[in-house]
Amino acid sequence: MIHPAAIIDPRARVADGVRIGAYSVIGPDVEIDEGTSIAEHVVVEGPTRIGKNNRFFPFSSIGASPQDKKYAGEPTTLEIGDGNTVREFCTFNRGTSQDAGATRLGNDNWIMAYVHLAHDCQIGNHTIFANNAQLAGHVHVGDYAILGGFTVVHQFVHIGAHAITAMGSILLQDVPPYVTAAGNTARPFGINSEGLKRRGFSPEAIARLKSAYKTIYKSGLSLADAKSELSALTSQAPELLPLVAFLQRSGRGIIR
Predict the structure, then answer these.
(1) Is residue 132 situated within a structural domain?
(2) Contact, 106 vs 125, CB < 8 A?
(3) Which residue in the list 21, 46, 106, 119 is annotated as catalytic?
(4) Are residues 202 and 134 both part of a single domain?
(5) Is residue 161 a part of any domain in this protein?
(6) Of the residues 117, 138, 159, which one is the last residue of a structural domain?
(7) Cα–Cα distances in angstroms (integers) from residue 157 to residues 112, 189, 249, in the given order
(8) Catalytic residue among 33, 120, 143, 174
(9) What's the pTM?
(10) 128, 202: one domain
């Protein structure tokens, strides 16, 4: 399963059943779990941990040191879960000691070509990043979020679960859960109704989320008052809980 032209550092730990293609380089302090496939011409640097059943396509750079002038060689990490697909020419950097010390990609994510995950990014599960989505450092992306091609995300921005961005979106502030964002700079354009239908949200839940969107963006209320109004509804509408929690902890403010 390991091509004789691949270079595997003796300090790397590679499980049985891992495929590594020709001319790929696996560095020290790299762990790769069973079922993962590393195609030809992939470079994996450590410390990096890669879980089970991932697929890495050619010419990706995984686990390189962060593109941060403050980085001074601290032993930070990249952590990748299970079942991810990482297409050609992706670049994932390790974390920095100024944050969590780790860049993390969860499970079952679909990462298309030329995507960049900078240092300390925290990516959930079941996301889709279309070609050339670019994340600066310290970005958080929630479960089931979808980033359109050429989406560019400013450092420290948070993107909520089930949010979606259009192609070419520029995100300078947080995108709340369920919201559709588009433009340069990005503005809100309703909720991701079609995505929520596909994930099993009931018509009633989607209607309540549409009403919550109007409370935030169409009612004329201040954001503080909108948060208070939505907080009072969470006992009857549990799908509002992630939205309210996101608004409470937003550090950069939300797109408006």
Answers:
(1) yes
(2) yes
(3) 119
(4) no
(5) no
(6) 138
(7) 21, 18, 12
(8) 120
(9) 0.97
(10) no
